Amino acid sequence: MKIAYLSTFYPYRGGIAQFNASLYNELKSGHEVMPYTFTLQYPPLLFPGKTQMVQKGDNAEKIDSIRILSTINPLSFKKSVKIINEYNPDIFLTKFWMPYFAPSLGYVAGKLTKAKRISILDNVIPHELRHGDMTFINYFLERNDGFVVMSESVKKDLLQLKPDAKYIMVQHPLYNHFGEKINKREARAELALPQDKKIILCFGFIRDYKGIDLALESLRYLDDSYHLLIAGEVYGSFDKYRNIIKEHKLSKRVTLYTRYISDDETPLFFSAADCNLLPYKSATQSGIVAIAYHFDLPVIATKVGGLSEMIEPYGSGIMVDELSARGISDTIKNFFASHYSNYTANIANYKLIASWKSLSDNIISFAEELQRT
User: Fold this and answer.
1) Domain tally for the chain?
2) Which residues does residue 256 pair with via DSSP β-bridges, in sequence order?
């Protein structure tokens, strides 16, 4: 197969770029793959973090992609179509996670003359829906031949908007580019964490829907043997979280690394923790779970979106039934009162099926099926 893969690649950073790099490396082992990326991904005024680009020390996968598409320049849309049509791929592969990308990616997909157009959907309907989003989403969906979904939640949203959609459902692969787990005592010392506490990790970009406020509030119902480690770049304001810490005198019970965490640093955080907490208010699937499992770290997660699909069938963590600070604290207590080493052992069950090879093989088989129809 000849594949044109247009999405976020180096020199952009973050989880989307990591996902694409891992899948690209697997696809190219058996196929001809050309990676394309953006000349402009987000205008600086629209990007909520500090930078979109790889920084010194990030140790990002240096995929030699071709930068062709500006999301705000229609002239680049046409140029991208011309470049990709000249490459003449059998498959045009994209990744979709927010409506902002629908006009540019949808235009390119709609103008391709031969390739089967397949999009990997992280989200269909976004966590924070805005006016006009549904028009953009429908525009994008109608310009693709098939879709890859990784949770029942995303599948449901897809079929709600496009009942005749052709799709495959796969498990989110584990990220395997972070290296090995570090000794727990050494990791805690490096991060200035207490050695004798139960360390609960909240990792990833800090946005309202991720429920960091609920995680902080849950400490009110836990004794001081529990310690919360929050690591990730803040998207928006951290003021409300800082106010919770101050109001409930939690400063000695919370360690903050509120900045972008590079790939090189990531093993420290997952190695130092006893569990990974996802107190999300809404969700589809989660790449954070895939990182946690790479480090054999059990997960505590709220029962929203598709999170339970990555956890409950495998016995690799425990779900929060009540979406509240009290519900989270009760579940944390239950987790540490159980033989939680069993959760760690059960992560192996997920690893058996959640591989990049499995995802790659499924995409190729799906494309072949689309070509026959």
Assistant:
1) 2
2) 230
